[in-house]
C-alpha cells in the first residue's frame, strides 16, 4: 500500500510538471507538492490550481484526487474486476487492509459498494453543483467546475478551481450546502455508508462501529459549530448577517474534518477559533473513509475508556458490546504517535521557516490530517519547508500505525504473564 501511494505520487508529479511546461513554468518541487497533496487528498497548494495549472494538469490533479480518495489498493483491486477477471486472495487481503477490515471476508462485496457509492454520490453532487454554477457560468464551464468540486469534496481533498476556495459563496446556500453534504458522506467511511444503505433492506441494526462513528461525528460537528459560532460571532463572521453567521459556522465546523474548503479564511480566526479548528483537524474523519486524522472511532473509544475508568469500571463497553483491551491500546498508541508526529513536524518546520508558532502548528496539523486549511503561508514556504509538508501529508494519508507495523512486527507477545506493578498515576 505504501509503495502504491509512492508510485502514484511519482507518476502524478511527472504528469503535472510536464503538463505545465508550455504554460506557466512549474518547478519540480511544486509539482511534487501538488501531486502529493492531491494523492493524499489534502488540498494544501503552493500554486493556484485554477489559474496556474494548465487544463491537462488540472485533469491529472482530479484523477489523482479520485484515486487517492478511493485508496490505491481499492483502485488496483477494481481493475481486474472491471476487466472481468477474478480477484485473488492477495488482492482481497490488501484491499481489506486498506479498508480497515480484519479479514478478507466480504471484501469483493464491499469493493462493489465502494465503487457504486462513489459514482452515485459524486454524480448526484456534480449534478446539484452544475445547476448551482449554471447561473454564473456557461454550461461547459459550469459542468467542469461541478465535476471537479464534487470529486474534491467527496474525497475530502479541498482542492478548488477558485483562488479563494469557496469564500465568494459565504452568503450562498446551494454551493456550500452541497459541498457540506459531500464532505460528511465522504468522511463517514465506506463501510458505514454501505451499512446505512443496506440497513432497511437487511433489517438488522447498525454495527457498534457504525453507531460510534455516527455519534462521534455528530458530537464533533455540533460542538464545533457552537464553539466556532461563539468564538467568531464578532470576529471572522462579523461582516455577515446573523443567519449567514450560523450557516458559515456550520460549514467551518464541517470542513476541518479533513475537507479543506473554506467560506471564511482561517487566517481571520481569533485564537479560540483556531484552537477549535486544530482540535477538529486532529480528530478528523472516520476509518476507511476519504479523510485523515486520528479518526472518530479512536477518539470515541478513548473517551469511553476515560469515562469507564472514572466510574471505576475495568471494562470498556459501548452499545451493549465490550470493546477489547487490545483495541483501546491501539487507539492510545495511534494518538500518541500522531501527537508525537505533530511535535516533530512543528520542530522541523520551525527550523526551516521564520514564521509565527501558531501558523506553523496550524499548517502542520492541516498537512498531517490531510485537511488542506491554511493560514496562507503554504505558497511562501522554502523548498525544505515544502518537503517537510510533503512528508507530513504522505505520513498522514498512509497511516502512522500501518506504516509502523510494516516496519516493526512483534511476535511471541502474550506468552509470559508478569506480576502486576503498582505505579501511581497523576
Task: Explain this structure.
With 426 residues, the protein is an all-alpha fold. The protein contains 18 helices and two strands. Strands 1-2 form a two-stranded antiparallel ribbon. Helix 7 packs antiparallel against helix 9 and helix 13 packs parallel to helix 16. The two termini are 40 Å apart. The mean pLDDT is 87.
Features:
mainly alpha; 426 residues; two-stranded antiparallel ribbon; 1% strand; 18 helices; globular
Describe how the helices and strands are arranged.
Layout: H1 2-19, H2 28-39, H3 49-52, H4 55-70, H5 72-82, H6 89-98, H7 107-134, H8 139-154, H9 174-188, H10 190-202, H11 208-232, H12 242-254, H13 271-283, H14 296-310, E1 316-318, E2 321-323, H15 325-352, H16 357-368, H17 383-398, H18 400-407
Antiparallel strand pairs: 1-2
Quick recap:
By secondary structure, the chain is mainly alpha-helical. Helix content is 64%, strand content 1%.
- Provide the low-confidence segments as ranges: none
Gyration radius over CA: 21 Å
- Estimate the mean pLDDT confidence: 87
Oligomer: single chain
Query: Termini separation (Å)?
Result: 40 Å
β-strand percent reads: under 5%
Largest sheet: 2 strands, antiparallel
Instruction: Give the helix tally.
Output: 18
Which bin fits the share of residues in helices? 55-70%
**Class computed from helices, strands and strand pairing:** mainly alpha
Rough outline: globular
